[in-house]
Amino acid sequence: MKLKNNHKFVLAADGSGASGKTTGAKIISRKYGLKFLSSGLLYRFASHQLLKHKPKNKVKFLKSKFKKLNYNKLNNIGLHSSKISEYTSIIAKEKKIRDVLKKFQKDFASKHKKVCIEGRDIGTVILPKADLKFFFVCSLNIAAKRRYKELKKKNKKIIFKNVKKDLQNRNLRDVSRKNSPLLKSRDAVIVDTGKLRNITMMVNKMCKIMDRKILDKYGN
Ligand code: C5P
After folding, report:
1. Which of 16, 43, 91, 146 to mutate for ligand 1's pocket (most ligand atoms within 8 Å of CB)?
2. Of 47, 53, 76, 215, which has the fewest beta carbons less than 10 angstroms from its beta carbon?
3. Full domain range(s) for residue 196
4. With a threshold of 0.85, does the pTM exceed it?
5. How far apart, in Å, are the Cα atoms of 31 and each of 77, 106, 152, 204?
6. Is there an atom of ligand 1 within 6 Å of 146 CB?
7. Count of domains in the chain?
8. For the domain that residue 209 is a member of, what is the CATH number?
């Protein structure tokens, strides 16, 4: 199925760290022409900036940073170190910080008719009325192997046991926080990337569900 120029479609993708959500959501966005936003990258950028500038008033500082943020530049500034990952999940607990990033995400979603946002609270808080919601799951061991492979490309000294522990701590912080925890929305479809043997199988499953939704919404 294809989305036409005049069609609107909102996709939410949530899941824990290294569950496969970014890969899945990016491929689907490209296939169906959805504007893609990784909210994790926004949180990582906020954390990077706070670590770098140590401002007195974090919220005021972030408000001004996010006002002039060019999202397309975030991929090239190395936001996946373990220090940034850890600090990100600490600042992500703070409601006032989440509110700044929420505004950025809401503005992004209302600017584009076809959009996909990926993160932890997209289906529950940011886009509760999304046309379709995916919730990605897999075991900690599989997620850790995935993240280890990614990080090893950039840093040869990385140790699997540490990657797994960091991921476990971060997931625990994300599911147990009071504000916007990682949570499956009741109407989200589960994508178990531990059971799907490869990316092609994951994409096929997602496309089938997307096609059904588009058909339901627009007919043929
Ligand atoms: O998705 P990614 O692993 O890049 O996210 C990094 C961190 O940002 C998460 O561990 C979480 O603490 C925070 N985050 C969040 N809400 C989102 C997206 C990310 O709290 N919607």
Report:
1. 43
2. 76
3. 9-218
4. yes
5. 26, 23, 29, 11
6. no
7. 1
8. 3.40.50.300
